[in-house]
Amino acid sequence: MITDIINKKRLGKELTFHELDMFFNGYLNGEVKDYQMSSLLMAICINGMSDEEVFSLTKIFIDSGDTLDLSFLPGIVVDKHSTGGIGDKTTMVIAPIVASLGIPMLKMSGRGLGYTGGTIDKLESIPGYRVNLSDEEIIHQVKNIDVVITGQTASLAPMDKEIYALRDVTGTVSSIPLIAVSIMSKKIAGGADKILIDIKYGNGALLTTKKDAEELASLMKKIGKIYQKDVHTIISDMNTPLGFCVGNSLEVLEVIDILKGKETNNNLTKLCITLASELVRMAKGGLIEDCQDMVMDAIKSGRAYNKFLELVKAQGGDISALSVSKKYKYIKAEKRGVVDKISAIRVGELSMMLGAGRKTKEDSIYYDVGVKLYVQVGDKVKKGDILAKVYYKHAPHLQDFKDIFVIK
Ligand code: URA
User: Fold this and answer.
1) How far is the CA of 143 from the centre of ligand 1 (A)?
2) 78-320 domain in CATH 3.40.1030.10?
3) Is 182 one of the catalytic residues?
4) What CATH class does 323-407 carry?
5) Are strands 245-246 and 370-373 parallel, antiparallel or unpaired?
6) pLDDT, tens digit, for every residue of 182-225?
7) What's the pTM value of the predicted model, to 2 decimals?
8) Rounded mean pLDDT, 116-121
9) pLDDT tens for residues 122-150?
10) Which of 183, 185, 188, 201, when mutated, tests ligand 1's pocket best, judged by the most ligand atoms within 8 Å of its CB?
11) What is the pLDDT of residues 24-77, one digit of tens each?
12) How much is the mean pLDDT over the chain?
């Protein structure tokens, strides 16, 4: 009985594979209703899951769709995923770097929902860029140019798509076991041999503490072991936005700057280099220092940027048509001091208010609005200095967002 299963979890008891299978597959075929699934998800959120339950649910999610066979690709195939954050554009930087070193990167990404943006929306800000490649197109492109960034195909872990959409509107997104199942089922079905997960914690992330991020890392590694997948994790801070730009086309422009070697010393560039070096090491082996040298050389030589251009062209995009709104306002410093904090969550909320992200799945977004930061934490500022440039369609009340910056 449906309600017996909900009650069992409400009391903190362990569900069997059979009970989970019945409930979740029942949801996919319409026998279990949204309100019943919401109730079970909340009980899981509050009472957690045993490792056994997590392994069972991961299998149920994987088996809900197809598994890609990437054995036609030479060498070790790597994949990367981030738990999401404000200004997180790492995939668009890393994939061309890694591919330019001869390592195939077939990346299926998601759309943004809420204030954490999605890579697919960002790439769609490039006029013409197609994010709905078919299986045949994906395989053809990865064989030809070593890199694809496209939307998740409908046949891969379709259970996750349904459950994630429900979690998003029922306050159940930040459950550690549910995040582990959601991400690992997609990655395992995606067919890579080795998987790198960037787990974020902080006010702009799903998880707020480093301890939670470590717990998620450990759980994901345990799932990986069962499927003989090497899972590497990097835990990174998401209290401050990643890089200087938040908003779709603004973020693509920032990616171009990094790939051209123009942005060398900020939190985003450093994280991209760390992640790309780790992926190279996972694929080719060797010392991390040597892998980092290869990554830096891919940027300095222009090979990584050329690979990005190749990727955009292959997927139909016209980089020269990328644009940002002509309307903008500045946020200026109200006093002299040192930038002590730049709140990721508040920048995310501002970019949502501007229309860069969607509140519901059905919302449309503006690609050319967003926030460009002019300072980093630790910078000295004088009264009247520009802290951020805000690109808009409909004039925002920036008075409400003064608390983005803390100056001491
Ligand atoms: N990203 C996902 O794909 N799933 C989650 O549950 C959280 C982040």
Assistant:
1) 28
2) yes
3) yes
4) alpha beta
5) antiparallel
6) 999 999 999 999 999 999 999 999 899 999 999 999 999 999 99
7) 0.94
8) 85
9) 999 999 999 999 989 999 999 999 999 99
10) 183
11) 999 999 999 999 999 999 999 999 999 999 999 999 999 999 999 999 888 899
12) 95
Set 39, 109, 175, 182: catalytic member = 182
Among protein residues, the one with the nearest Cα to ligand 1's atom 8 is 83
Q: The tokens of 362 are what?
A: 């059905």
- 196 beta partners: 80, 232
Nearest alpha-carbon partner for 209 in 245, 175, 237:
237
Q: Which of 160, 172, 179, 199 to mutate to test the pocket of ligand 1 (most atoms within 8 A of CB)?
A: 179
Distant-in-sequence, close-in-space partners of 67: CB < 8 Å, separation ≥ 6 = 156, 188, 189, 191
| Ligand 1 binding residues, C-beta < 6 A | 83-84, 164, 178-179, 182-183, 206
Q: Does residue 167 carry a catalytic annotation?
A: yes
Q: Where are the domains of the chain?
A: 2-48, 78-320, 323-407
Split at pLDDT 50, 70, 90, the class of 113 is low
Residue nearest to atom 5 of ligand 1 (CA): 179
Q: Are 2-48 and 323-407 equal in CATH topology?
A: no
- Among 9, 186, 229, 346, the active-site one is 186
- Region 2-48: CATH code: 1.20.970.10
- The length of the chain is 408
Phi and psi, residue 361, nearest 5°: -60, -30
Taking the C-alpha atoms of residue 189 and residue 302, their distance in angstroms, rounded to an integer, is: 33
Does residue 186 carry a catalytic annotation? yes
Distance 180 CA to ligand 1 centre (A): 8
Q: How far, in Å, CA of 99 to CA of 67, rounded?
A: 23
Q: How far is the CA of 160 from the centre of ligand 1 (A)?
A: 9
Query: What is the side-by-side order of every strand in the sheet holding 380-381?
Result: 380-381, 337-342, 405-407
